[in-house]
Backbone:
């Protein structure tokens, strides 16, 4: 069993499992948006659950457009009566892609 949230440092406490019942759940929808989740409104989240109760996947024609779509999708998520990390995710800048010495994105995976 994980330690009680009270004994965790604040930086970790924000992501500690938060059991409870999901009273309201609204998921983002639309082109280029996919949400993988096994919960719905009324689902009970136990202390032993995987802290990721939903995964948001977005796609668009380029990184900038996909980042805007991700921000909009995060704003559309609504989860009530359960601690979530959307506030943190909304404030986190998107990662900078790795670049080669030529100023191009390196996609060579071999």
Residues:
């Amino acid at each position: 069993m994980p330690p009680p949230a009270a004994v965790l440092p604040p930086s970790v406490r924000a992501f500690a499992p938060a059991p409870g019942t999901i009273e309201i759940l609204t998921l983002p929808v639309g082109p280029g948006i996919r949400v993988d989740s096994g919960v719905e409104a009324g689902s009970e989240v136990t202390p032993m659950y995987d802290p990721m109760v939903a995964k948001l996947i977005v796609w668009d024609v380029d990184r900038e457009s996909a980042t805007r779509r991700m921000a909009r999708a995060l704003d559309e998520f609504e989860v009530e009566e359960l601690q979530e990390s959307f506030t943190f995710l909304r404030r986190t800048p998107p990662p900078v892609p790795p670049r080669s010495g030529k100023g191009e994105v390196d996609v060579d995976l071999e």
